[in-house]
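Fold this: AraC family transcriptional regulator
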Amino acid sequence: MNLAYESIDECIRYERRIYNPNKCNVNFHLHEEFEIYFLISGDVNYFVEKNMYPIQYGDVMITNNQEIHKPSFKNDNVYERITLQFTPHIVRKFNSPSLDLLSCFLNKPKGQQNKITLQPSQINEFLRLFNQIENLKPHVGYKILKLNYLIELLVLINIIFKDVNRSENLSSMPELLTSLLDYIDMNLEKDLTLESLSTKFYVDRFYMGRVFKKHIGSNIHEYILFKRISKAKQILSEGYSVTDTCELCGFNDYSNFLKMFKRTVGISPGKYKGNLGNMDID
C-alpha cells in the first residue's frame, strides 16, 4: 500500500462539534475506526461497554473497533468535543520495535482503561495538534501532514498511557443497572426481551427502562443490539459462518441480522467476513 496515493481523508476523520443536549440524541457507536475523543465542555459521563467514566475538560477517551461507546449527558449544559477516528492499518507500518502505536487501544481488557487524564501541559500539546489538523488547507502536502499529526498524537497517548494510574475511577451506577449490564453481556445468545429481563430481575419493565435511560442515555434494546453486533464481529473473525454467527448472537431472524449488521457496521456480515484478511480486527 502506497500511502502517497491512499485516500488519507477517508482513513483519518477529524470532527469538532458542539451539541445542545436538549436537541440531540447521541446513541451508541460501534465502527471500524479506532477513536480518540477529547472533551472540551459539558457535564457528561462516557460509557464504554459496561463501564461509565466520569470525564471533565481535557480528558481523553480511547476506543477500538470492538468497544461500544457513547457520551451520557448529566444536564443540559452545552457539550463540545473533538473526535479523531482512524483506520488502524494506516499507522501500523510506522510501528517501531519499541513502540506499537495501537498498543494503548489493544493491550487492555475490553471496556477498561479507556480514560486518560492529561496534565495541563499535555492538554496544550493535544490542542496544538488538533488545531493543526483542523486548520489544514488542501495543498500538495496536506495529507502527509495530517498523517504526521495523527502519529504524533498516538506517540503521546502511548507514552501517557504507560504511566497512567491503573485504578479505574468509575461513576457509580444503581445495583440493578450493574447486574443488568453483566447479565446481558454474558447472555447475548438468549432471550433478552424487556419482558424476560423484568422477570429475571423481578422488576417492572418500565421502571427498568427508565433507570437505564436515566443513567446511560439510551434504551435497553439499542444497547443489546450493539452488543450483539460487537459479538458478531468477534465471532466472524474466529471463522464462524454468517448463519452460525446469527444464532450465536441471539438474532432469531436471519434477515433482520443482515439488516442490523449492515446498518451498524456499514457492510454485510458476508462481506465483512470476506474482508477479514485485509482488516485489523482485534
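The two ends are 21 Å apart (CA to CA). Residues 142-163 form the longest helix (22 residues).
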